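Folding Problem: From Residues to Backbone Shape
Fields: amino acid sequence; protein backbone structure tokens
RECORD BEGINS BELOW THIS LINE
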Amino acid sequence: MATPREPDALLTGGPRDDTPFNAEDSAMVELEIEGLIHRYITTHQRRDMDGRSLAVYRYDGVVRPPNHPKGAEPRDGGDRPAPGAPSR
């Protein structure tokens, strides 16, 4: 039986903000959540969590998968602040 590996990366922003995971040196991570594809891109940043230095993956936005019905995706991409809103 395989032993789960400890997380080596952290998702930042988007629907899975501050979620640790095992990246296995991937350049990009795509997650399907409620029928939409959410992308996270690797950065050169590291963040300490529970005594470990984790690679940071930044939220890059949402896309519809092929053949997905129009209108199910937020017009603003789902994670961009409204015009004039303060940035985080």
